[in-house]
Structures are given as structure tokens and as C-alpha cells.
Amino acid sequence: MKTALFFMMDQYADWEGSYLASQLNQSKQWSVKTGSVAETVSSLGGFQTQIDYQIDNQL
Known about the structure:
Blueprint lengths: L1 E6 L10 H8 L4 E7 L3 E3 L5 E3 L2 E2 L5
Parallel strand pairs: 1-2, 2-5
Antiparallel strand pairs: 3-4
InterPro entries: Class_I_gatase-like
Protein name: 4-methyl-5(Beta-hydroxyethyl)-thiazole monophosphate synthesis protein
């Protein structure tokens, strides 16, 4: 199975990734996950998104 990782930033545009995510999610070959430096992010539309993978912010 392939995994598509959407990197989410706070105040992301919630409509931008929805078209691709909905197409990928219809296939058994793909898993759609989210990643961010924060545990939870908010969209411009007010959705609160709990992240699947928290990414370390240190360089």
C-alpha cells in the first residue's frame, strides 16, 4: 500500500487537498495521512484537524 502524506500548516486552506484526498481514498492502493509540526491544526474554514504524524521541528 502507498501512503500519501499531506503536510498541514496552521490556517491551511481546507478545500485545496480535498479533491486529491477524496480520489486517493477511493483506491485500496492508497492510504491518506496528515503530518505537521503541531499536534492539531486549524483550517481557514474553522476545522480542527488532529494530525496522524507529528514532525520534529528541529534542524
